[in-house]
Design a protein that fits this description.
Distance between the termini: 23 Å
Number of strands: 12
Structural class: alpha/beta
Strand content: 5-15%
Radius of gyration: 21 Å
Shape: globular
Largest sheet: 8 strands, parallel, barrel
Number of helices: 14
Mean pLDDT: 86
Order of helices and strands: EEHEEEHEHEHEHHEHEHEHEHHHHH
Helix content: 40-55%
Strand order of the largest sheet: 5-6-7-8-9-10-11-12
Length: 382
């Protein structure tokens, strides 16, 4: 896909960062972290999310302030490594170091082979998935289901660490607080995994039984941090700069990992970094800047997925950007009927141009009367 589509040039994210409310956007020192030999620029991480954290999304988040991002989950099944789905998940073209790949599986030897396969394809850090609560993962005894079988979990960790050590590739691991409320074993597993050679642990503050329901709790994460010497990353319900500050303070974690809150709001990392450094909050980004940012995201997305799959998989990203915005729901419904990348990009441009006529910056109070006028404008979208 060319760099100029619909009259829009690729936008420089550095310009987005430097021009967002110059009076308050002060470059401040970030809390650095290290994983193995890799020094990270800060302690704000992108959580691995299947179907979301592909290379275009990871790259965008890094440009907008994230210090680290992990790939979507890659299977340990050798027969699936050369499928189109896995090849896209393992695409690191142009991505800044360190390249971190998450692997999932149930067999220790297969997981070790998967680690080596991904290292050969550019991975510099291997992350083991013991946190995914999805039924299609847990029914196969992978993801957070492994927390039920501590012996198997340890076998997998030891096999992966032993495979990666000769290549000087650090191994990290993401898990939950436990399988259910009555079986919270994250602290015990954390000690075991540290002894086995894991160099960083990320903990989501829910059990597998909770899925994403209820609220994340951070006492278990604090207990994990107190129990080990390796870095611990807090994850779960971190949706604002203030929440990031509070979670870091209450858990003493070394970093925070943000997932769903970054969907449609990849600049949240820059907002958090600024707030942690200065105690002040950045103004909402300019509507025109968000338009250009999203259009660049779409161009990269089409490059990776191609025309047919690109248009369809981009829909969820566009929906996240416009959710709760005036006219956003009507736009989403109309946009979902589009099956051509150029038309999709034109529709996004039109929507944000209309929004910019009413708002200079993204409205913070999104439930307002502006929706009616914008809905009327959108009647001519398609």
């Amino acid at each position: 896909m060319a760099c100029l589509i619909g009259g829009l040039k690729r936008y420089n994210c550095a310009s987005f960062l430097s021009s967002t409310n110059r009076s308050t956007l002060t470059t401040a020192p970030h809390t650095a972290m290290q994983i193995g030999q890799f020094q990270l620029p800060n302690n704000l991480f992108v959580a691995p999310m299947a179907g979301v954290t592909d290379r275009p999304f990871r790259t965008l988040c890094k440009k907008l302030g994230a210090g680290y991002a992990v790939s979507e989950m890659v299977t340990s099944r050798r027969d699936l490594w050369h499928t189109l789905k896995t090849s896209r998940r393992a695409d690191h073209t142009g991505e800044s170091a360190p390249i971190a790949v998450q692997i999932a599986g149930t067999d220790a030897a297969m997981m070790a082979d998967a680690a080596l396969y991904n290292i050969d394809n550019g991975a510099q850090i291997i992350d083991i998935n013991m946190g995914c609560p999805a039924k299609k993962v847990c029914n196969k005894w992978t993801g957070s289901a492994l927390m039920q079988d501590e012996a198997l979990a340890l076998q997998i960790v030891e096999a992966v660490v032993n495979a990666c050590a000769p290549r000087q590739v650090p191994v990290t691991l993401k898990m939950r607080t436990g399988w259910c409320q009555a079986h919270k074993n994250a602290v015990a597993l954390a000690r075991t995994f540290e002894q086995a050679g894991v160099q960083m642990l990320a903990v989501h503050g829910r059990t597998r039984e909770q899925g994403y329901k209820g609220e994340a709790e951070y006492d278990t994460i604090a207990a994990v941090k107190a129990a080990v010497q390796i870095p611990v990353v807090a994850n779960g319900d971190i949706h604002s700069p203030q929440k990031a500050r509070d979670v870091l303070a209450s858990t003493r974690a070394d970093a925070v990992m943000i997932g769903r809150a970054a969907q449609g709001r990849p600049w949240i990392f820059r907002e958090i970094a600024h707030f942690l450094a200065t105690g002040t909050q950045l103004a909402s980004p300019l509507v025109a800047q968000v338009k250009r940012l999203l259009c660049d995201h779409l161009l990269d997305h089409y490059d990776l997925y191609g025309e047919f799959a690109g248009v369809r998989t981009a829909r969820k990203h566009i929906a996240w950007y416009v959710r709760d915005l005036p006219g956003g729901e009507m736009f989403r419904q109309q946009m979902n009927q589009i099956e051509d990348s150029q038309l999709q990009l034109d529709a996004v441009t039109h929507y944000f141009d209309q929004l910019a006529m009413q708002y200079e910056r993204l409205p913070e109070d999104r439930n307002n009367s502006g929706a009616s006028k914008l809905n009327a404008e959108l009647q001519t979208l398609i």
